[in-house]
């Protein structure tokens, strides 16, 4: 066993929220609103359905193989070589996704807060912090997350409540303006974010009560969707669908607009500070999945020696991003099919079907 | 810049390798070396100003038909 | 060995974590309070900034009101873009220009006629200026506006900002303007301001009485088509615009006294609401505007006893008429003179008829100009102050 730690269901829920939410409220609202305009909230609801199905799929698959991660049972299901191929692809995806996450964060910080700081500094510092957490194992990562995520969520909610003054419900009308296709297009991006729950396959074996995995996955997905829904509604009700689609980070702008009695204002610094913790947690989970997966894929006795080299790879990959326009274009167009069709739905589904057909693994609980 | 990069690679090697050698974890040592080599291959050219192809571009090309639907 | 490695890494990291990267002390920044943009003959723009002089903002300077240090410094520079002008400005301003506290953005009349979109873009795109900057158009040049002195506030930018915040007239912040610019169902209306004579500062020596000072003030509304200025509404029509947009809710309505029409009664508005109900049958476009208003009687010039239910009823219907007159004045100007929908009727239409909107949205302004608008006002008087009759009138 590479990982001795165990985490409880609460920590797991919080960890999955961190896995999706921090970047979801950063870049997803603008992309979804661009497609579906004021119906973006319907897109989120559609995406939530998809997210719940993916969560169910992933949990079903994992529970057939108690105590094993995706990398271990992929070989058991498909055989040695195809299993290794699947494992390799997942390692790549964890690394690539993580590089994109860091790019999102770095461009956000650069364009909104620290224009003079080179992005590489954000990469190195972020990875250094995350590396410490990952080296210490899942338990430490979960505790760090348990400490800061409630702060992040609480503060965000307070800011949203303060922003109600500037909201108008009429900005959500008319409903179904752009039609079903636009709503589905808008749903693809949030669905691909919620589908990142596929990393849960790396965490389920370390739950102290694996039986609660379904509940954990469903609750985490619903909670994440709720926040995503609220942040999109807030942005649309403040700016209207046109302007929301024009911003790159509408949620951030919504926070900036909050002004209570010319006294309680300019709160974005606090919001960004807390947002950063969420970013570390998200990077940390992907990082952990890549490192643990690599160790299992190579059949190592310890994953810790890989932490530093993987960190180097992550920084180098993240530094390849040329500019924010490339990044946003990739996230809006290529990412949803890339993530959804292969890693979040395609491969887990194939694995589950083959497992059922070959009768591999125990009955799921 | 390149100097800093090499210093940090030496730092990482000094941090991990002695422990692995002492515990005779050869498999881990090989994995470590390979991963670090990949990391070096990706980072050193960037620091030297040599253009490294971005894998996102390849993925974009691969998923182009599906990505068109998202426009 | 391990210790050396850790030490090396720590050394490396300390280089990166050395505190604030882009630290600026207060004495190193020039805080912009107000920005003005004018269009120059040669196709360039002139950027004028009003910079705060922090020394004048400390409490001590308040004491000697006479020998008060000027609180602001106004400088201009020209360029093709705001940023280019800012760079030329930097050659005169010995500190780093900081936009984060900019309160107002004033557009000169000529600039507004050339287009506002190219100016507001910078203020939305850059991270420093805030979304809640008050935007206004001045009759004349923005430079003059910013160079004006303020007797009550420290600077004219603050004075203009407070005027807007009081909502005595129509006021608009950058993010609301952005929404108006981005929507086809509404054309932008921006606060109009001007420099005018406003009061004097009394001197101890009456002989040395100072001449009336020019100060900043509100002057109605600037009407835009897309992002170009096409005309103005005067303060009276502005009240009508506010009612049609459902934004007024402050102010006074003057109506004739029921028994003595040559004497006036003032009614202070307490609250109000506006509903726009579009009706469309594929050809004929009609809007029902329902305004509801509540007010208190605060002033009476006539001698009659108004504290009677039937008199209040009469006052209420007169109040409704007056309000309708205001709204109609604004509406007629928008429909007949300028031909633009500055009220957001198009947005209201879009909310109700989303399919029809697709056909109409590109020629909305013409449709709007032809549309029939029925304004129905329902007025209510709640309180009459502390008096029943006008005091000092002998019993008859």
Automatic annotation (TrEMBL), chain A:
It is found in: Membrane. It holds the Pfam family Spore_permease. It is a multi-pass membrane protein. InterPro entries: Spore_GerAB (IPR004761). One of its GO terms (cellular component) is membrane. Its main location: membrane. It comes from the Bacteria. Keywords: Germination, Membrane, Transmembrane, Transmembrane helix, Transport. GO terms for biological process: spore germination. Belongs to the amino acid-polyamine-organocation (APC) superfamily. Spore germination protein (SGP) (TC 2.A.3.9) family. NCBIfam families: 2A0309 (TIGR00912). This is Spore germination protein KB. It comes from Desulfofundulus thermosubterraneus DSM 16057.
TrEMBL record, chain B:
Keywords: Membrane, Transmembrane, Transmembrane helix. It comes from the Bacteria. The chain crosses the membrane at residues 29-48. This is Uncharacterized protein. It comes from Desulfofundulus thermosubterraneus DSM 16057.
From TrEMBL, chain C:
InterPro entries: GerAC_N (IPR057336), Spore_GerAC-like (IPR008844), Spore_GerAC-like_C (IPR046953), Spore_GerAC_C_sf (IPR038501). GO terms for biological process: spore germination. It is found in: Membrane. Residues 23-194 form the Spore germination protein N-terminal domain. It holds the Pfam family Spore_GerAC_N. It comes from Desulfofundulus thermosubterraneus DSM 16057. It is a lipid-anchor. One of its GO terms (cellular component) is membrane. Residues 220-385 form the Spore germination GerAC-like C-terminal domain. This is Spore germination protein KC. It comes from the Bacteria. Belongs to the GerABKC lipoprotein family. Keywords: Germination, Lipoprotein, Membrane, Palmitate, Signal.
């Amino acid at each position: 066993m590479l990982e001795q730690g165990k985490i409880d269901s609460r920590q797991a829920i919080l960890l999955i929220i961190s896995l999706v939410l921090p970047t979801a409220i950063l870049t997803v609202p603008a992309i979804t609103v661009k497609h579906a305009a004021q119906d973006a909230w319907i897109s989120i609801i559609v995406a939530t359905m998809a997210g719940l199905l993916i969560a169910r799929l992933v949990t079903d698959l994992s529970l057939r193989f108690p105590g094993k991660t995706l990398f271990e049972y992929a070989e058991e299901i498909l055989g040695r070589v195809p299993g290794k191929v699947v494992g390799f692809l997942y390692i790549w995806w964890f690394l690539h996704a993580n590089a994109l996450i860091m790019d999102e964060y770095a461009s956000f910080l650069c364009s909104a807060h620290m224009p003079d700081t080179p992005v590489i500094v954000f990469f190195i510092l972020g990875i250094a912090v995350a590396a410490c957490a990952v080296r210490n194992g899942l338990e430490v990562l979960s505790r760090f997350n348990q400490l800061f995520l409630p702060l992040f969520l609480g503060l965000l909610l307070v800011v949203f409540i303060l922003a109600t003054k500037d909201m108008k419900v009429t900005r959500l009308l008319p409903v179904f303006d752009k039609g079903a296709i636009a709503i589905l297009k808008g749903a693809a991006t949030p669905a691909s974010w919620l589908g990142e729950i596929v990393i849960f396959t790396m965490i389920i074996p370390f739950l102290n009560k694996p039986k609660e995995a379904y509940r954990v996955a469903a609750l985490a997905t619903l909670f994440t969707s709720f926040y995503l829904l609220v942040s999109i509604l807030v942005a649309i009700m403040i700016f209207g669908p046109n302007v929301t689609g024009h911003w790159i980070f509408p949620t951030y702008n919504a926070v900036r607009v909050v002004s209570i009695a010319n006294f309680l204002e300019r709160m974005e610094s606090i919001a960004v500070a807390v947002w950063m913790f969420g970013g570390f947690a998200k990077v940390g989970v992907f990082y952990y999945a890549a490192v643990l997966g690599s160790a299992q894929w190579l059949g190592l006795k310890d994953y810790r020696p890989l932490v530093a080299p993987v960190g180097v790879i992550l920084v180098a990959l993240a530094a390849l991003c040329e500019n924010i326009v490339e990044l946003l274009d990739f996230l809006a167009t290529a990412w949803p099919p890339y993530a959804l069709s292969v890693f979040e739905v395609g491969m887990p589904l194939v694995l589950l079907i083959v497992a059922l057909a070959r009768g591999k693994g125990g009955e799921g609980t | 810049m390149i100097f800093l990069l090499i210093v940090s690679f030496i730092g990482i090697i000094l941090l991990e390798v002695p422990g692995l050698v002492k515990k005779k974890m050869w498999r881990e040592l090989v994995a470590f070396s390979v991963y670090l080599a990949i990391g070096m291959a990706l980072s050193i050219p960037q620091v030297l100003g040599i253009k490294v192809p971005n894998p996102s571009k390849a993925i974009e090309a691969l998923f182009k038909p599906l990505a068109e639907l998202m426009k | 060995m391990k210790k050396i490695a850790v030490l090396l890494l720590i050394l490396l990291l300390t280089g990166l974590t050395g505190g604030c990267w882009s630290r600026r002390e207060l004495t190193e920044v020039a805080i912009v309070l107000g920005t003005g943009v004018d269009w120059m003959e040669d196709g360039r723009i002139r950027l004028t900034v009003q910079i705060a002089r922090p020394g004048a903002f400390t409490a001590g300077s308040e004491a000697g009101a006479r020998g008060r240090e000027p609180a602001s410094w106004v400088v201009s520079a020209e360029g093709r873009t705001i940023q280019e002008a800012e760079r030329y400005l930097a050659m005169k301003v010995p500190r780093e220009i900081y936009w984060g506290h900019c309160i107002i953005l004033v557009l000169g009349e000529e600039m507004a006629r050339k287009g506002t979109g190219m100016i507001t873009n910078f203020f939305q795109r850059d991270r420093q200026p805030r979304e809640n900057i008050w935007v206004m158009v001045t009759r004349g040049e923005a430079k003059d506006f910013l160079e004006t002195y303020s007797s009550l506030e420290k600077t004219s930018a603050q004075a203009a900002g407070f005027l807007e915040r009081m909502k005595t007239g129509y006021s608009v912040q950058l993010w609301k303007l952005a929404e108006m610019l981005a929507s086809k169902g509404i054309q932008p209306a921006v606060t109009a301001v001007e420099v005018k004579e406003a009061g004097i500062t009394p001197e101890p020596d009456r002989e040395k009485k100072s001449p009336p000072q020019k100060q900043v003030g509100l002057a109605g509304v600037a009407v835009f088509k897309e992002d170009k200025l096409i005309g103005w509404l005067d303060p009276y029509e502005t009240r009508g615009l506010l009612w049609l947009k459902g934004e007024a809710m402050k102010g006074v309505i003057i109506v004739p006294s029921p028994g003595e029409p040559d004497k006036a009664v003032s009614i202070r508005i307490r609250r109000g609401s506006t509903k726009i109900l579009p009706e469309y049958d594929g050809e004929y476009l009609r809007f029902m505007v329902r305004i509801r208003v509540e007010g208190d009687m605060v002033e009476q010039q006539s001698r009659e006893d108004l504290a009677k239910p039937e008199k209040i009823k009469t006052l209420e219907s007169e109040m409704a008429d007056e309000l309708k007159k205001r709204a109609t004045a604004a509406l007629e100007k928008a429909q007949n003179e300028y031909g633009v929908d500055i009220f957001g009727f198009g947005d209201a239409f879009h909310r109700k008829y989303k399919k029809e909107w697709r056909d109409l949205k590109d020629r909305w302004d013409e449709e709007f100009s032809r549309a029939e608008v029925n304004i129905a006002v329902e007025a209510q008087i709640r309180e009459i102050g502390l008096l029943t009759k006008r005091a000092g009138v002998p019993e008859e």
